[in-house]
Fold:
Amino acid sequence: MAATGTGGMYWSLPGLLANATCTQFKVVRACTTAGYVTNCTTRATDALLGILQNDAANGEPAEVAFTGVCMALSEASVGYGDKLTGSATGRVKSRQANADEIIGIALAAGDAGDLIPVMLSRFEAAA
Structure:
């Protein structure tokens, strides 16, 4: 489903539900419960699905942007054009190791806690 949000235009994955730990504007992964998503915790091994765009409570529909441009919370200092991955808290951060899965590219610089636009382009980095 196409959506236009605060930070741009993106496509979201249909039929997903948030679990109790999901937080708006954080990177999410598949949960152990089918059909649910949870915050990213391990950037090198989590199957990153996208970035949660709505403030969904446990069991509510999760609007997970997977392609396009959306907003995300920054974990630390991020530079314009940096390749991004998820941090242990689910925020985006600059890729540190080749094994980190990429969720997108920063379209603006930001510091810890900033809401930044991200061009989503999920791919696995070369090990």
